[in-house]
């Protein structure tokens, strides 16, 4: 059994880690930390899990956490993560950080988007945890910078196509829509039911901090700097993210060329599903699961491709992918504990 | 491995059976039937399950179905079920019928609420599949009349209290609220998104056919005829049912008396959770799971009790309980394949 | 033109007052106050009203407000209202208070449910603003305690029946369901989209402060003390409230007797609509309007009646009824400025 | 008073026409037709409007309709409209058709997207009813092809910019999201609550029939053929449409250049609101109203502009604009009867 700890267990991402790990056959959740709820039973905060999860939250302590757990998931806001990570690595732990702190290779890009980085030296050691793409590095890693939800939905469909040089890099536009859980559990006017319900709107147009993250990783695929247009929108649903991506094709390709590029690249990777018959993927069909469903259409003129991807922002976009990375790091099947059959509705 | 078949697999209840059974470790889904979709792959109708379920739907045939499966779930509308059931029983199959056709002991009550019953002789053989209450009979049964969703939400909290004589039977009122999936997959104006969204209303006041079903079973507990007041309402959510029940107490009892009555009756039955601290249960906390959460408050005067129960109408209210019954009938742990950890959100 | 001021204009109730008054042909909004947003244009807080409302919020000041306005709506939390009201009345203003501070006749009941009352002497001067019931008193009033949303939905259908002695007072149960806007604009976990969406639950069972308000006013109708059972629930919709009321009939009455009791009592009052053919009313059909739709069913046994009422909690349950009261106080037609045609969807 | 008739009054668009026209101070609704509901009171189909609308639906008859009404709104599916229109024009009526039948100038484009056109000769007589753009033609028209909802949301923000030559025509991409009411009242699996709720997906990618409509009208502004990329998505809300448009700028322009282009073009047209401070517009802020709110951001590189528009698809996207056109055709202020103050929530 893998002994795991979750730092910051009571936010939405932390709770989703708990939910999935509680059902993972090879995992024992040994420690849950929470500043706000230290001493409180996790299932009084999330009564949904009564009878399934009976840990009591505790305050973070390097030694206690390290004693109890071998794999540590950090589900804290950025900036806090980099305070905890070095000490855990020093104690020989594997760390999977779900904040932005270890996603960037280039500290300057991180600092431009977030703030001063206090553990820069770890950035080269950290592996970007896009499970299907950086698998080999993840296998050897002891520090994972788990991808943001938007980058996951954007990079998974684009990476193979960029690598094969099929897209005009300068023309890439990603129009993304996220459910509200992506905003976290903190109460704010922006997440008030009455402000979101029956509403749809863009936000942080041209300024969202997931964009430089995408650009850096897409640049790896393209072999040159990438600067996409990215516009996030807020959807009145709890879970789910859809991204519609537009790009000019760099050469004449058929529908089956694109399909083959994707299916070859993702061969054997069960969480990536390419839809049949140009069917647009639906967030509802991946709700609560680790799937990323991808569909695409080439315009009649052959000039432009439209690619659509859907994920559950809390699962493949956060906790699920983190656990997939744990599986890969520990030599388990990547799908272990993650084979939730999706709802039909 | 238990070989199962699902008759009427493409409605919402059928699909929910498929979803849960696809993840059941001791089950093999061997046959799915559908009149409308015979010859069509199930996962083209429900693409959510691509990669998880790969059966093709077929037309119903007594011999083929009986050859492939030992336990048959019937997820057809009432009236159709009683046409299929006798032939399957004759072939030695165990039948779990999710329609109303085998829920009643008294054929007259069935016929008053539904229509002429063409297999009356089976009613005494059929066991009412309220898993926690009629467990012993279920163990021995080969025909289960799986309870309606509303009756499940009403009978589970009331049965122990009535049996112990704690309630004034004539004062019982159940105010129930159901998600839209209870109406099934058929397209109708009543289930049109724009008619349901931002709407709340009662329906079938005093005429819903689940009421005589409740009355008959509550009568078993009370030891005398029961005629409750029952009002269903339609909630603008997909899954979930909440019932608030009002009754005068027949004697002076404390909060802990009631609690003890319930916890004793349901001792060892993990799917029944009594909330702590008079916390009202929340449909969201049982979404997608087989739980029935129950909370209650005694009025300060001590005169009246208010009991609240929540279930997922498609799981504990239909497919989940059917599978729980299959587990009981086949000697498995009742929770086998049903330990879905609930979402926190 | 009636010159009006709104104290606390930026909460949801205040904003709804602004919305409706901005379209009122005989009203000029002369002053909007807000502690939080003093100096800020109202339409930057509520951009929906850009081009319709161009006032700038200001800090409250007795003299300034009294100079600019003749009718003052107070949309502040209880306790604050009673600090502002005496000074405004002294300056000869008409005050319509939407908090609980002036709803009770009996200060003891107020203090039991809320807190110490610092302007008790005004309680006998204040008129309870249930427009259709206390019309004559409202005409002469200069201080209105505008009813709570739940009491409005409960008292309107019950008052005529109780007055006529048709109900067994001790058996009255009100199962009420409210949209989220009733909780106000303040950010909290309880109103977070992800906690409400796809959720339904009771809250404050037996402890909600609207219950003593109902009891006091229903007591006026019944001519004796009333102590109903009241359970509020939270609906995942923005606007709307449905209350299903159960009561034993005190005598043998027909459907048309009840109908006549209601239609006679509400004769000429256009905002009360009694549904035809026992159709349960639907919150969607009163959304955004000042209507209260009422339906009812008598059980076949003739013993119990089930009454259903729906309102928009922000309109008939708050701002709309306040404006209706202003109309009555100032001699206008009660429907002036309130004839919004309801959406079909 | 303008005497109006509505042909096909009981669909969602028809009912929205009824709602708005019932509150229009210069209009008398004299005839409502419905094949399905001939002889039935409109307010039994839409009880929301009880007390506001008391007409009985009747079967269509050229002479009866023409006798009663001077302005006829046709809210029928395409193909049916062109059967009714010629006879009404012959009888000297003004016709505002909300189907696609009279939107195209080029019959070949219509026939490629829809079917054979049986009244081609009227296409040159019909005026495309985008109220703020073709105002002068609308003033003189007796036949209006009222725009589709998607084209309205796309053309309004783009027309001025294209006319001024500010955009690279070939790079235009419109990513649009519509509420469910756009699909109409007909029951179908696609509009079933459970299929839409908690779901988001694209549909008809590259094949939606509103695209050629947009292309034709944008071509008028650009002065050359236009062939945009258009992807519609289905939003889990009842009313509302947001379109995010991407285009490369053809020259170096500032934020204020774009702003000025838009505000100059729409000077004096109150239904077009340009948001301040690059704030993305929100569907909730135009719900139930005839507004089109537009926001935009120029990327830091200055290369690309992102434009966002929101409308209520049933109002500015259908019934509201139709009534605006009636106002213009009859010499009324274009906003007459359309000054609904938007909800704050």
Major sheet size, sense and barrel closure of chain A: 7 strands, mixed
Widest β-sheet, arrangement of strands of chain A:
8-9-7-10-13-12-11
Q: Which structural class fits the helix and strand makeup of chain A?
A: alpha/beta
Largest interchain contact: A-D, 45 and 45 residues
Can you tell me the CATH topology of the largest domain in chain A?
Dihydrodipicolinate Reductase, domain 2
Shape designation of chain A: globular
- Oligomer description: homotetramer
Q: State the CATH class of the largest domain in chain A.
A: Alpha Beta
Instruction: Determine the strand fraction of chain A and express it as a percent band.
Output: 15-25%
Number of structural units classed as domains of chain A: 2
Q: Specify the number of helices of chain A.
A: 11
Distance between the termini of chain A: 34 Å
Write the CATH architecture name of the largest domain in chain A: 2-Layer Sandwich
SSE inventory with pairings:
The structure is a homotetramer of 345-residue chains.
Chain A: E1 2-7, H1 12-22, E2 27-33, H2 42-45, H3 62-68, E3 71-74, H4 81-90, E4 94-97, H5 107-113, E5 127-128, H6 135-140, E6 143-145, H7 149-163, E7 173-178, H8 193-196, E8 201-202, H9 210-222, E9 229-234, E10 241-248, H10 255-265, E11 272-274, E12 292-298, E13 304-311, H11 315-329
Parallel strand pairs in A: 1-2, 1-3, 3-4, 4-6, 5-6, 7-9, 11-12
Antiparallel strand pairs in A: 7-10, 8-9, 10-13, 12-13
């Amino acid at each position: 059994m893998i002994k795991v700890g979750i730092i910051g267990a009571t936010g939405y991402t932390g709770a989703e880690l708990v939910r999935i790990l509680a059902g993972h056959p090879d995992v024992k959740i040994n420690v849950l930390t929470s500043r706000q709820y230290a001493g409180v039973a996790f299932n009084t905060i999330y009564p949904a899990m009564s009878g399934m999860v009976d840990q009591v939250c505790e305050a973070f302590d390097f030694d206690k956490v390290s004693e109890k757990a071998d794999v540590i998931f950090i589900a804290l806001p950025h900036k806090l993560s980099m305070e905890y990570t070095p000490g855990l690595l020093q104690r020989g732990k594997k760390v999977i950080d779900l904040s932005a702190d270890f996603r960037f290779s280039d500290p300057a890009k991180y600092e431009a988007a977030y703030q001063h980085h206090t553990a820069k030296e770890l950035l080269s050691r950290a592996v970007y945890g896009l499970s299907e793409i950086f698998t080999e590095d993840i296998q050897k890693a002891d520090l994972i910078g788990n991808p943001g939800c938007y980058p996951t939905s954007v990079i998974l469909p684009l990476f193979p196509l960029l690598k094969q040089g099929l897209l005009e890099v300068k023309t890439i536009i990603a129009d993304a829509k996220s459910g509200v859980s992506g905003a976290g559990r903190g109460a704010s006017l922006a997440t008030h039911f009455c402000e979101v319900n029956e509403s749809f709107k863009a936000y942080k147009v041209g300024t969202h901090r997931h964009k430089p993250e995408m650009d850096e990783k897409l640049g790896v695929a393209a072999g040159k700097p990438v600067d996409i247009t990215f516009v996030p929108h807020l959807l009145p649903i709890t879970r789910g993210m859809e991204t519609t991506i537009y790009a000019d094709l760099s050469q004449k390709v058929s529908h089956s060329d694109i399909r083959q590029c994707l299916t070859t690249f993702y061969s054997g990777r069960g969480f990536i599903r390419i839809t049949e018959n140009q069917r647009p993927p639906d967030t509802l069909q991946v709700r609560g699961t680790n799937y990323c469903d991808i569909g695409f259409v080439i315009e009649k003129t052959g000039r432009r491709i439209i690619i659509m991807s859907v994920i559950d922002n809390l699962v493949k976009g956060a906790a699920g992918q983190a656990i997939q990375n744990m599986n890969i790091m520990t030599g388990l099947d990547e799908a272990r504990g993650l084979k939730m059959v999706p709802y039909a509705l």
